[in-house]
Protein backbone atom coordinates (compact mmCIF):
# COMPACT_ATOMS: atom_id res chain seq x y z
CA UNK A 1 0.00 0.00 0.00
CA UNK A 2 1.28 3.46 -0.92
CA UNK A 3 1.46 5.96 1.93
CA UNK A 4 2.98 9.25 3.06
CA UNK A 5 4.88 9.25 6.35
CA UNK A 6 6.55 12.16 8.21
CA UNK A 7 10.35 12.20 7.90
CA UNK A 8 13.38 14.34 8.68
CA UNK A 9 15.03 13.30 5.38
CA UNK A 10 15.32 16.04 2.75
CA UNK A 11 16.33 16.33 -0.88
CA UNK A 12 20.09 16.58 -1.38
CA UNK A 13 20.20 20.00 -3.07
CA UNK A 14 23.96 19.70 -3.71
CA UNK A 15 23.37 16.54 -5.72
CA UNK A 16 20.78 18.39 -7.84
CA UNK A 17 23.34 21.13 -8.58
CA UNK A 18 25.80 18.67 -10.14
CA UNK A 19 26.30 19.09 -13.90
CA UNK A 20 24.97 15.66 -14.83
CA UNK A 21 23.49 15.09 -18.31
CA UNK A 22 19.68 15.25 -18.25
CA UNK A 23 18.24 12.34 -20.22
CA UNK A 24 14.65 13.57 -20.07
CA UNK A 25 12.93 16.73 -18.83
CA UNK A 26 9.33 17.89 -18.99
CA UNK A 27 7.06 20.40 -17.31
CA UNK A 28 3.29 19.96 -17.23
CA UNK A 29 0.81 22.65 -16.20
CA UNK A 30 -1.89 20.77 -14.30
CA UNK A 31 -4.03 23.72 -13.31
CA UNK A 32 -4.16 27.45 -13.91
CA UNK A 33 -6.84 29.97 -12.95
CA UNK A 34 -7.06 33.76 -12.97
CA UNK A 35 -9.26 33.73 -9.81
CA UNK A 36 -11.88 36.01 -11.40
CA UNK A 37 -9.22 38.71 -11.98
CA UNK A 38 -8.27 38.71 -8.26
CA UNK A 39 -4.98 36.86 -8.56
CA UNK A 40 -3.53 33.67 -9.95
CA UNK A 41 -3.41 29.97 -9.04
CA UNK A 42 -0.96 27.68 -10.84
CA UNK A 43 -0.09 24.02 -10.27
CA UNK A 44 2.80 22.46 -12.23
CA UNK A 45 4.83 19.26 -12.24
CA UNK A 46 8.44 19.11 -13.41
CA UNK A 47 10.35 15.87 -13.92
CA UNK A 48 14.05 15.40 -14.59
CA UNK A 49 15.69 12.04 -15.34
CA UNK A 50 19.45 11.51 -15.06
CA UNK A 51 21.61 8.38 -15.12
CA UNK A 52 21.84 8.46 -11.30
CA UNK A 53 18.08 8.80 -10.69
CA UNK A 54 15.06 11.02 -11.20
CA UNK A 55 13.55 14.08 -9.59
CA UNK A 56 9.94 15.26 -9.62
CA UNK A 57 8.71 18.61 -8.32
CA UNK A 58 5.05 19.46 -7.75
CA UNK A 59 4.52 23.17 -7.17
CA UNK A 60 1.36 25.08 -6.29
CA UNK A 61 1.62 28.87 -6.61
CA UNK A 62 -1.13 31.18 -5.33
CA UNK A 63 -1.17 34.96 -5.70
CA UNK A 64 -4.02 37.05 -4.29
CA UNK A 65 -4.10 40.62 -5.54
CA UNK A 66 -4.32 43.63 -3.23
CA UNK A 67 -2.00 41.95 -0.72
CA UNK A 68 1.30 43.61 0.16
CA UNK A 69 4.38 41.91 -1.29
CA UNK A 70 7.70 43.69 -0.80
CA UNK A 71 9.38 42.78 -4.08
CA UNK A 72 9.45 44.52 -7.53
CA UNK A 73 6.15 44.05 -9.47
CA UNK A 74 7.86 42.12 -12.28
CA UNK A 75 9.07 39.48 -9.81
CA UNK A 76 5.73 38.42 -8.29
CA UNK A 77 4.45 37.11 -11.62
CA UNK A 78 7.07 34.33 -11.68
CA UNK A 79 7.00 31.71 -8.86
CA UNK A 80 10.68 30.88 -9.50
CA UNK A 81 11.67 34.46 -8.64
CA UNK A 82 9.22 35.26 -5.82
CA UNK A 83 9.88 32.37 -3.42
CA UNK A 84 13.31 33.59 -2.18
CA UNK A 85 11.60 36.79 -0.98
CA UNK A 86 9.01 35.00 1.17
CA UNK A 87 9.28 33.99 4.81
CA UNK A 88 8.80 30.31 5.62
CA UNK A 89 5.77 29.94 7.88
CA UNK A 90 5.35 26.16 7.94
CA UNK A 91 7.27 23.23 6.48
CA UNK A 92 5.96 19.69 6.20
CA UNK A 93 8.35 16.97 5.01
CA UNK A 94 6.85 13.63 4.09
CA UNK A 95 8.18 10.52 2.43
CA UNK A 96 6.25 8.51 -0.14
CA UNK A 97 6.59 4.80 0.47
CA UNK A 98 5.74 2.44 -2.37
CA UNK A 99 4.88 -1.24 -2.08
CA UNK A 100 7.85 -3.58 -2.66
Automatic annotation (TrEMBL):
GO BP annotation list: TOR signaling
One Pfam match: TIP41
InterPro entries: Phosphatase_reg/MetRdx (IPR051330), TIP41-like (IPR007303)
Entry's Gene Ontology cellular component terms: cytosol
Top-rank taxon, per record: Eukaryota
Family, per entry: Belongs to the TIP41 family.
Full protein name: TIP41-like protein
Organism, as annotated: Darwinula stevensoni
